[in-house]
Amino acid sequence: MSFKERLLTNWHIMRIFRTGIGLWAAGEAIYTHDWAISILGAFFLYQGLTNTACCGNEACYTPQVKKAELPVKDISYEEVK
Q1: Which SS3 state, helix, strand or coil, does residue 63 take?
Q2: Would 38 be classed as within a structural domain?
Q3: How many domains does the chain have?
């Protein structure tokens, strides 16, 4: 997958959120002249633009395990007074 395809496809709410946080932090870093916030902003902006995160590209994907169907047993109840 090329960088252009990665940048322009597969946008979802968390990717938009990370990009927004990165843009906010980068703007705040420019406004306050703080290098620590600029590193944080660059980190989130990189994650948002390239869609890389902990599980962004299904890196933590685990398949669902199908449960075996158990036989249904009839249970008889006795009324106790």
Answers
A1: coil
A2: yes
A3: 1
For residue 44, being part of any structural domain is answered with yes
Q: Measure the CA–CA gap between 12 and 39, rounded to whole angstroms.
A: 24
The residue assigned the tokens 């660059």 is 42
Question: Which range of residues forms the domain containing residue 44?
Answer: 10-50
Three-state helix/strand/coil letters over 21-56: HHHHHHHHHHHHCCHHHHHHHHHHHHHHHHCCCCCC
Summarised one tens digit per residue, pLDDT across range 32-77 is: 999 899 999 999 998 888 887 766 555 565 666 666 666 778 888 8
Task: Kindly state whether residue 24 falls inside one of the protein's structural domains.
Answer: yes
Q: Cα separation of 81 and 63, whole Å?
A: 49
Q: Is the pTM of this model over 0.70?
A: no
